[in-house]
Amino acid sequence: MRTRRRRAVMRHGAPGVPESRMVVSNEKKGVVIRRRRPEEAEAPAEVGGADDAAKAAEAVRSDGTVPPHVASSQAPSGGAAPVERVVPRGTRQPLHSRASPHPQEVAGLAPVPDRPRPRVEREKPAVRAPLPTEDDFAAMFEGSEGERAAGPAVQVGEKVSVRVVSVGRDALFVELGGKTEGIVDRREFEDEEGVLTVGVGDEIQVHVLQMGEGTIRLGRSLGRQGQGAAALEDAQAQAVPVEGRVTGTNKGGYEVEVAGVTAFCPHSQIDLEFTADPSEHVGRSYRFLVTRCEEGGRNVVLSRAALLREERDAAAEQLLETLAPEAVVEGTVSRVEPFGAFVDLGGVDGLVHVSELSWARVEHPEELVKVGDRVRVKVLRIEETERGPRIGLSMRALGGDPWDEAFERYQVGDVVSGTVQRLERFGAFVELMPGVDGLVHISELAHGRRINHPKEVIAVGEAISVQVLSMDPRRRQIGLSMKALAEDPWVQVARELQPGTRIQGTVASTREFGIFVEVPGGVTALLPLSELPEEEKASWRRTYAPGNAVEATVLHCDAERRRLTLSRRPDDEGAEQRAFAQWKQSGEAGSEGLGTMADLLRKRGS
User: Fold this and answer.
1) Cα(357)–Cα(364) distance, rounded to whole angstroms?
2) Dihedral angle at the C-alpha atoms of 101, 102, 105, 106, nearest 10 degrees?
3) Which residues pair with 437 in a beta bridge?
4) Can you tell me the distance from the alpha carbon of 443 to that of 482, in angstroms, rounded to the nearest whole number?
5) Could you report the per-residue pLDDT of 180-239, keeping only the tens digit for each?
């Protein structure tokens, strides 16, 4: 059928394909007619119009010859014989090639000039990959099985980070990487109440305990998977923790039952801190590191502190990556010292200075915190040192600043009450409210007294009333005064101690020019050396030692200048001086002086 169709095409042409677009070739199985390639196509004729070109094409026979009537009717006037070209059957030469005349030329039409046709780049069809064969499937399957069998490059005892992919009743299924999975005993991640502390998707740190054919067993410590001295030797060599139970104490430490063997743990290795009561560890189960395993398991030494230090360092490294100043965190008081309290933040300790415990004054941190207390603190600073990070913390920063409230509550001139907190040589600090202290300067303690130390006037813990003299919010200072609320003693002294009055006092101090004496009324008087009797001047320092009682006569009192002068000279010797002092104090002396001798005689005669 196909052969007949090919022959029909050769005789009559392919339907729908003009002969000018066809190429005939002879292949192995017969004649093939195909479309002409773009490079074999002829340029269309333009001379004579489209109708003439169509008629000329129709006049050409299928075998490439022109009928005689067409050739004679269209022959040139020169009488040239018609040209007939026969294309041998079975060749690949096109019917209208460049070497042969164009049909229009054969038909006697005007020759067609050559016109280049644009070359159209056709998109090449995509090359399909060959379908895999059975051998290819076998090779891929063997590669997948090899990859699964190889798994990650881990060794027994190695500490790895894995991800929980499934939770079973007795085990956790984890992914080590790639397509390799492992098994972890579920009880290792349960708390004391049996509640699982991890879930699907969590990252956990475990040790490779056993690698079997297709199974990898992991765990935090060597538990029931290993028993006997051999298991402990492997645990020591691979640094894998073991789980043991403290059964008792002895002179140097603790007896621990682990892997069916009785081991020893020194006192210093049971915890990071000193344990005052060793019995508190008896009956508890811990994870240990095997530090020594000798004599076939008869000499096994364990350490829990080494494992705790390793865990603490890992936690500290993770904490320091996120910890920053101004952060508020929780911690546990680990140690209390006179200068402050150390707080464990989870692997790293910070210091709360005694001044940062509270706004109120704290003599010792034990007044507020003790070891084991859970506290909230604010990070003030983090300093890197050779011995590690130094973290400054504060508890009082989490509360309101009492100084802001104090400056709103008090004003200059207010009279307030407070308690004496401490005494210094320059004055006394008085607590007005928790965290706010004011200063009573030594000069503001009392009127008219020379005070060497505030303890001469007040005592710590005494409740007093003071007046606000000054306030400095920027420097957080409040100035107070006690003497501003007391009556000025010089008013009473000027009224009661007139010249010639005999008084008793106590020697306060001595100088080269005289003796200072404390007299009733809270004032200090001066007894000049010139006012001592002649017999006392030679040994006056021994006679008038500080603290000795002394009796004297008021010689002069000046309340405005706050001066009180005494005398111990006999009455007849000091009478003139006392009379002169009274006259001067009365104001009878004028600016003109005493006058002339005649004025004095005239005044006496009158």
Assistant:
1) 10
2) 70
3) 431
4) 9
5) 778 888 877 887 777 888 888 888 878 777 676 667 877 776 655 556 777 788 788 878
Tokens of 441: 């300067």
Question: May I ask the CATH architecture of the domain 489-586?
Answer: Beta Barrel (2.40)
Identify the residue whose tokens are 């990556």.
321
The answer for residues whose C-beta is within 8 angstroms of residue 42's C-beta and 6 or more apart is 20, 96, 102
Q: How far is CA 561 from CA 267, 338, 494, 499, 555, in A?
A: 76, 49, 11, 16, 15
What sign has the CA pseudo-torsion 87, 89, 95, 99?
negative
Instruction: Report DSSP letters for 503-563, one per residue.
Output: EEEEEEEE-SSEEEEEETTTEEEEEEGGGS-GGGSTTHHHHT-TT-EEEEEEEEEETTTTE
Class of domain 159-219: mainly beta
Q: Is 4 left (phi over 0), alpha (psi -120 to 50) or beta?
A: alpha
Of 369, 365, 355, 328, residue with least CA distance to 435? 355
Query: Shortest CA distance to 340 belongs to which of 316, 373, 369?
Result: 369
Asked if the domains 229-308 and 402-485 are classified in one and the same CATH topology, the answer is yes
pLDDT at res. 471: 92
Domain 229-308 fold: OB fold (Dihydrolipoamide Acetyltransferase, E2P) (2.40.50)
Q: How far apart are CA 131 and CA 80, in angstroms?
A: 64
Q: Which helix (H) or strand (E) holds 565?
A: strand 563-567
Q: Residue 582 pLDDT > 70, yes or no? A: no
Backbone phi and psi for residue 226, each to the nearest 5 degrees, phi listed first: -130, 135
Smallest CA-to-CA distance from 427 within 446, 407, 410, 447 is with 446
For 326-390, which CATH superfamily applies? Answer: Nucleic acid-binding proteins (2.40.50.140)
pLDDT, residue 352, reads 93
The percentage of residues in the chain with a pLDDT greater than 70, rounded to a whole number, is: 65
pLDDT at 49: 47
Report helix, strand or coil for 484.
helix
Q: Which two tokens stand for residue 294?
A: 């000798």
d(CA 518, CA 448): 10
Domain range 402-485, its CATH number among 2.60.40.10, 2.40.50.360, 2.40.37.20, 2.40.50.140:
2.40.50.140
Residue 187, CB half-sphere, CA atoms under 13 Å: how many?
Answer: 7
Q: What values do phi and psi take at 465, rounded to 5? A: -110, 140
186 Rama sector, left if φ>0, alpha if ψ -120 to 50, beta otherwise: alpha
| pLDDT, position 392 | 92
- Of these ranges, 103-107, 285-289, 315-319, the one predicted with the greatest mean pLDDT is 285-289
- Write down the domain spans for the chain: 2-106, 159-219, 229-308, 326-390, 402-485, 489-586
| Type of residue numbered 458 | I
- Which of 89-93, 118-122, 427-431, 562-566 has maximum average pLDDT? 427-431
The span from the CA of 176 to the CA of 161, in Å, is 7
Distances 303 to 6, 253, 264, 308, 335 between C-alpha atoms, Å: 97, 11, 9, 9, 23
Taking the C-alpha atoms of residue 520 and residue 563, their distance in angstroms, rounded to an integer, is 14
Q: Write the pLDDT tens digit of every residue in 515-528.
A: 999 888 778 889 99
Q: Answer yes or no: are the C-beta atoms of 328 and 377 closer than 8 Å.
A: yes
